[in-house]
Amino acid sequence: LSVLPGDGGEARKMRLRSAKFVIIGDELFKRGISTPLLKCLTPPQAAYVIEEIHRGICGMHSGARSMVTRVLRAGYYWPTLKSDCRDYVQKCKECQEFGNAHRQPPETLHQMMSSWPFAKFLLVAINYFTKWIEACPLAKITTENIQKFTWKSIVCRFGIPHGLVTDNGRQFIAQGFEDFLRELGVKHLLTSMEHL
């Protein structure tokens, strides 16, 4: 056990690597910075632990990274832990059949075009109490579009609101929108306009 390589550099590397391990009784353990001692396993023992964690009574067919974490939490270590877990998951029939797979090939980058009817504005309504958001993309911000949105997305879904706070945009202060709100009995409050 106390034989070091004749080469000075190799002997130094061996001393540094062996400082991370300790023998207690007949068992080899790996020291961790913030973890308890991890029991070092032989290849047959490692295969059994992987099988139990992946398929055993508490097995979840988790991914390789999750399996590595669970093995370390269970208090075990071996040098090829990460690659063994990755290989095991790749060979697991159930994981390959039912796991999340990215089957769509990558696509080359291209310019994105806005969809018809070229909506470039977003009308947003926020309930001040619940913070619920309703939004609608618009090609043009017109009084008619605002009325349709208010009726369809607010009144028909949630009932008539007590008040509506808007900025001083032309579409909000238009007589048609004011009449629409007055008919519903909605109090209309105005704030200053926001400019980006």
Automatic annotation (TrEMBL):
The biological process GO terms on file are: DNA integration
Q: Which parts of the chain span the membrane according to its record?
A: none
Q: Which Gene Ontology terms cover its molecular function?
A: nucleic acid binding
- Any Pfam family matching the protein: rve
Instruction: Show where the Integrase catalytic domain sits.
Output: 101-196
SUPFAM superfamilies registered for this protein in UniProt: Ribonuclease H-like (SSF53098)
User: InterPro entries per the record?
Assistant: Integrase_cat-core (IPR001584), Integrase_H2C2 (IPR041588), Retrovirus_Pol_polyprotein (IPR050951), RNaseH-like_sf (IPR012337), RNaseH_sf (IPR036397)
Record's protein name: Gypsy retrotransposon integrase-like protein 1
Which lineage?
A: Eukaryota, Viridiplantae, Streptophyta, Embryophyta, Tracheophyta
